[in-house]
Specification:
Helix content of chain C: over 70%
Structural class of chain C: mainly alpha
Number of strands of chain C: 2
Oligomer: heterotrimer
Strand order of the largest sheet of chain B: 1-2
Strand order of the largest sheet of chain C: 1-2
Chains: A alpha/beta (423), B mainly alpha (413), C mainly alpha (302)
Radius of gyration of chain C: 20 Å
Number of domains of chain B: 2
Distance between the termini of chain C: 56 Å
Structural class of chain B: mainly alpha
Order of helices and strands of chain C: HHHHHEEHHHHHHH
Chain lengths: 423, 413, 302
Amino acid sequence: MRHSLNRERLYTTGIAALLSTGLATGLMGCKDSSKSFGESQASAAATPGAAGGLAVSEKEVVVGQLHSATGTMAISETGSIEAERLAIEQINDMGGILGRKMRIIQEDGASDWPTFAEKAKLLLEADHVASVFGCWTSASRKAVLPVFEKDNGLLYYPTFYEGLEQSKNVFYTGQEATQQIIAGLDWIQKEKNAKTFYLIGSDYIWPRTSNKIARKHIENVLKGTVVGEEYYPLGYTQFGSLINKIKAQKPDVVYAIVVGGSNVSFYKQLKAAGVTAENQTLLTISVTEDEMLGIGGENMVGYYAAMKYFQSLDNENNKKFVAAFKAKYGPNSVIGDVTQAAYEGPWLYKLAVEKAQSFDVDKVVAASPGIELTTAPEGYVKIHPNHHLWSKLRVGLAQADGQYKVVYESGLIEPNPFPKGYQ
Amino acid sequence: MSGVLQSVRPSSLRPSLRHLTTVVFEGQRRRENLYFVVLAVVLLGLFPLALDNFHLNLIGKYLTYAFVSLGLVLCWGYGGILSLGQGVFFGLGGYCMAMFLKLEASDPASTSIQSTPGIPDFMDWNQLTSLPAIWVPFKSLFCTLIAIPLVPGLLALALGAAMFRRRVGGVYFAIITQALASILSILIIGRQGYTGGVNGITDLRTLLGWDIRSDSAKTILYYVNALLLLGAVALSFSILRSKLGRLLLAVRDREERVLFTGYDVAAIKTFVFVLAAVYSAIGGAMFTLQVGFMSPSFVGIVPSIEMVISAAVGGRGSLFGAIYGTLIVNAAKTFFSEGFPELWLFVIGALFIAVVMIFPNGLAGMDYARAARTVLGWFSKLGKMRDGGSGRPVVAVVAPVVPSQPRIKVEGQ
Amino acid sequence: MNISAAIWAMQAFNGLSTFCVLLLMALGLAIVFGQMGVINMAHGEFLTIGAYTTYLLSQVSERWLPALANWYFFVAIALAFVLAGALGLVVEHFMIRKLYKRPLDTLLATWGLSLIMQQAFRSTFGAREVSAKLPDWLMGSLKPTPTIDIPINGLVVMGLTTILTAGVLFALFYTRFGIDVRATMQNRAMASAVGINTARIDRLAFGLGCGLAGVAGAAFTTIGSTGPTSGSLYIVDTFLVVVFGGAQSLFGTIASAFTIAQTQATTEFFMTGSMAKVLTLSLVILILMARPQGLFALKVRR
């Protein structure tokens, strides 16, 4: 037995050594190609407008796209990939940036955070991309952040998120938590005369941080009470007990930040337990039109969602955007808040480069604050010196067809990623 | 019970047994030593010479998984204990390292904007105002280096002792370790004030002032990692060549007989399980150092199963096979998910099925002799067809050199 | 009737309903894993087949057969059984059949299968989750008193679980097929010697297990999501239920589903869901350490 084992090992090791040699030489090819690319960039860097060894030539500027095209996060990130591509295509049709067409190098983060970091490094160090549009989850952003800071890259991050971050090298085109939470709570308190709130979330950083801000605001500003705060593991599917607790407390408002597959279970079970918009007010900040596809509009009817963008927004910019998106990706495509925020990334980059008259990261960053995007589908946004966007908050009323009807629109809200008194 | 039996064991058997095995295994040892040298040359010479920094780092990351596979070969391939929770130990080792590095990165000067400077940023966001007690030992590198093998080792010891004493094995053990992986990942994600939650512990910068993010540091870490791995392989061989190694095989194949011969089967199994856990923990710590962060996504069920599969592809009965298998599976994963995102799950799924169905002993256990004969047979047939059958039958030359071998037993239980 | 009594009543129902969900998803696995010893990691994907079947039928009925809109759900359940079962037969023939002597290897092979199935769902239905439009009566609730709501989908799952469990128990203990199955599982060589076609029994039993998973998946569209990876949400819990019950005992599976569900539902009411889950899993592991054979062990000669 032992003997045979060992005999087999002979062949194995031989073959494995051969294979690994092959592997190594195969990868060597990659090495050479990436090197030669880098060298070609070095010559390109001499052109005017380009700086810092970025991949910018007379004709084109190379940008990176770093999302999960595979793995569990692909569901969420597909919309962002599509929106960024659409924006880049439109920019190129208009003549590009400073006369240069944008060329995309797309890398797949594969829903794996180290992969995100590696690919970010590859984009910045081997491809010398001028900017990157990418990431979706906070975990992936946290993983690439040190890379962007070390290599002085430029990242446009589209997702609404928990805040508590501000980097020279990142622009956050989604809302940070206070922008999304405070105005929404103010509105619902006034509208429903709400005094008691029940906070629910999936158990990870964004819901917990958001609920923390919500609780402070409810208790200190609105003078209401939080009658419950509950967290369930990601992917949890049994919400019967939670629903009974809600019924026992009878809160004026349920404030829900449930994500992923749990979302579907939560809303379906709410409905089946007799909790509907008729007898319970619910405000969520985690259900975009994308999520509603999975939940089913009929299970959400009458609930409220607070975010900066809804597909149904009634303005000229948005009509054009929705039409262009559907023309490119099919009439049944759905556009959620993050998809729209991702669409803004390339446009904001274009404006910043044109203002700086350079692709150099430091100059683009310096030029960015104060830049206004008047063609944004959400209406109007402006870059704040803290790299987040001034934006409005809308409250949408869920419809059976999976869309939201906008029932409230705030004024422009200043982004405040490190809110004092909310931590 | 076992203690009593152990004292009755005929000790006179031992010398003769040793003599016998020495004779049988002499040739094998020489070959193993040769393969060890080959592995060392590949890891220390070939890869660093042939690859640029980026790909070398990639290989370095794969090699940290190879620690896990190595442990799995010992406890699964040799000991018959399948653990689906190796990610737990990998993660614990990684988190221990990450805690030290994070504390070093969060000195009061660089965290001055926080309401409590000097503690990691995520603690500050979660309203912790002082360092939790479990973090305190990780201020010292010495304690950290002890904790890396100790924490996972103790957990494995507690688990192994409890389970193997009661003779929980096989499938039950696999499912229970799986539940353990699920518990730990829920805990880490849920207790984010203490663990950094789902984002993990990120933005690690220096080790005792040495910047681990620079290319030169990564190259050095690669070599450290490779040397540690070679050390682990050497240690594994010395264990497998000892009496313990033979007992381990005996336990896998005929647990009852070993038990009735008077050996403490539970202790043997626990030992190898703890060893596998410690290997995984070292891998995890090296992972943290090389990749620069640790997150709960390496603790859960999916990464744990993927590690088992890497070991299976390489060959669960072969230490070398496991290392090459891990390299190949992860390289394939990277290659396919980049080049063919739609296809890669199909490919990788098919690979796993193929490994089990067609070559259950993995790459290491494939009957290359038979495969070679078959292929050569085709060629010789081709040759015969071409020159009217006068071609020299190549197969006749090859056959005596590599006679076909019986396959090793693959039952897990 | 005051509020707190109503809450207790609903919470009791919730416990029962969780029990039925656990039992329903574990029933198929109790046969495949418990009886046959096949560690089917693709069990969750067979559930997903049922869910997608429901989704497809809801699309069909919406577009072409509006008359069926209220009742297509039951057709979907039957169809889910047939489809998942048929796929189970195929998988058994090409894969599982060759692995009965290597239980741990079935784990690896079926994990590969589950990856392939997930990608197949993704390629066919898209990466996004879909939603079957369920008839209104199914998503409503009964109100025996003004303060009590009994979810109808919970009742349907309960009814379905009762019928299927009774059916499986009857099939296993009172039919020729069941006797053959039990004989084969307990002693394959002897069963074969007395003239049982064990290969056929294996195939049918595996198909039955997968079919039951399909039914569970169809039923779960009323309470959960339908997406390429939806099934994988259930897989760990499912295995724990079967192992905790004592793998070879169907009664054990029932008892264990009940215990786990009640622990989960009760702890959840007093603490946050994450901690309740950790507590429940830890309790199960501790009990399994003390009693590795599970709650009910079948006494057989090995």
